[in-house]
Specification:
The chain is α/β, with parallel strands linked by helices and 172 residues long. The protein has a single domain, classed as Rossmann fold (3-Layer(aba) Sandwich). Helices cover 38% and strands 19% of the residues. The chain has a five-stranded parallel β-sheet, with helices on both faces. The longest helix has 17 residues. The protein is globular and about 50 Å long. Homohexamer. Pathway: Cofactor biosynthesis; coenzyme A biosynthesis; CoA from (R)-pantothenate: step 4/5.
């Protein structure tokens, strides 16, 4: 069941693998939380991507790093999901799916996914938020690779995420 656009309780879903959560993700979460009354951060299981962190670890990372955002702008909830994104959004009563775009290369995939989601459920809109120029180059894949090779990722992830990544890679 989806919410009407004039509903006083607008629910948005910000989905992702968040493996790992980056400061770019946090910036999108902060901006998205100003647009809805309730923001659900959907942490995708997506084992096909070969995540570094388990789904429970990723949920914990998100919870820890958004702790100071709760109730600042809206209610924020974190939920795992492994079904179709559009079905997850419908199940939680969302009226919109929020997607972050870093570059033109992201747009083609997102455009196709938005079209398919609209076909599956035309009542749920997709909203694109452009990444700030400060975060456009940041991707979770790059962050994992840089950290695994002993590079400095402190500027693009929180200390919490950095220490957990270093532990995963056996680094100090």
């Amino acid at each position: 069941m989806t919410q009407d656009l004039d509903s006083k309780h607008r629910v948005g879903v910000y989905p992702g693998t968040f493996d790992p959560l980056t400061k770019g993700h946090l910036h999108i979460i902060q901006r998205a939380s100003k647009m809805v009354d309730r923001l659900i951060i959907g942490v995708a299981g997506n084992v096909r991507k070969g995540p570094l962190f388990t789904i429970d670890e990723r949920i914990d990372l998100v919870k820890t790093d958004i702790a100071n955002m709760h109730d600042k702008y809206c209610e924020i909830e974190i939920r795992p999901f492994s079904n179709l994104l559009i079905d997850f959004a419908s199940d939680v009563g969302a009226s919109c799916i929020i997607r972050g775009l870093r570059a033109v290369s992201d747009f083609e995939f997102e455009f196709q996914m938005t079209g398919m989601n609209a076909k599956l459920n035309p009542d749920i809109e997709t909203v694109f938020l452009m990444a700030s120029d400060k975060w456009q180059f940041v991707s979770s894949s790059f962050v994992k690779e840089i950290c695994s090779l002993g590079g400095d990722v402190s500027g693009v992830v929180t200390p919490n995420v950095e220490s957990r990544m270093k532990a995963k890679f056996g680094l100090k």
